[in-house]
Amino acid sequence: MTTSHSDLDSFGPDDERMLKAWLSERRHLVDEALRRALPAPDRWPKRMHEAMCYSLFGGGKRIRPVLVLAAFEAVGGARDLPYEAALPAACGVEMVHTYSLVHDDLPAMDDDDERRGRPTNHKQFGEGMAVLAGDALLTEAFAAVLDTDAYGGTADPALMTQVGRGLSRASGWLGMVGGQSLDLGMESPVITHDELAFLHRRKTGELFRFSCWSGALLGRGSEAQCAALGEYGETLGLSFQVVDDVLDELEDTTERADDAAETPSFPALIGLDASRKLAAELADRALASLEGFGVEADPLRRLAWFTVHRDH
User: Does residue 288 contact residue 58 with C-beta atoms inside 8 Å?
Assistant: First the structure.
């Protein structure tokens, strides 16, 4: 997706190469931690374990958990602590995100048959099992955050409590679930740019905020650092959603057109070019939140670039 001139234009091929290498390494850490956090595949109930893993390891970008690790690094956490100090929060937020997708796809909500090139969970395992698999992932998210053995000897009960409370708020009725209720038209009509931004700050931005805030907190960042990175995360989350809307618009399929008639998008409300500009402006605003951070925050800077330049 091309954008107008912004601070993002200072990023080049070397940044892209370094980001890809960094993402590959951090996604591997997250995947390994997720496998450790779930019950062994041979434990009962096996079919539910299969349904949980089908979606959890179904090819997601892992943006939220890698943001946890990036924020952890940005405050210097990786210098003095093992990555296990932040991985429980990374696992928790990815499990919450995955459960939300499983439930989003159900006939009672978005009624989707395919995700990431495969049948959706309820098409593969049945609606009942999809509901239960989502429920199980949500529950295991908090088990992961509260597992003292998963923190590599760095578990701090006070920090774990803050992270658990933060994840609950970000994923609950004040956060992601509240945004979903707006998205389904269950609250009030979404007909303006500001209303759509409010929706997506809840549905997407709150988990992005949590990811960066919790990574900074577990990296023993200062209160000011945690606040700045939380602001970065929420702003980046909205930019991410605007780009999603732009990419959906560019697909220009009949199915997408029908969806757009039911759920407003940024291109539908303000136009395609204005949406591209908005995504870049939001990413620049996220970058501004990183002023005062050193080179340890470079992955976050590159992730802002990635957000507006990705093509899927």
Answer: no
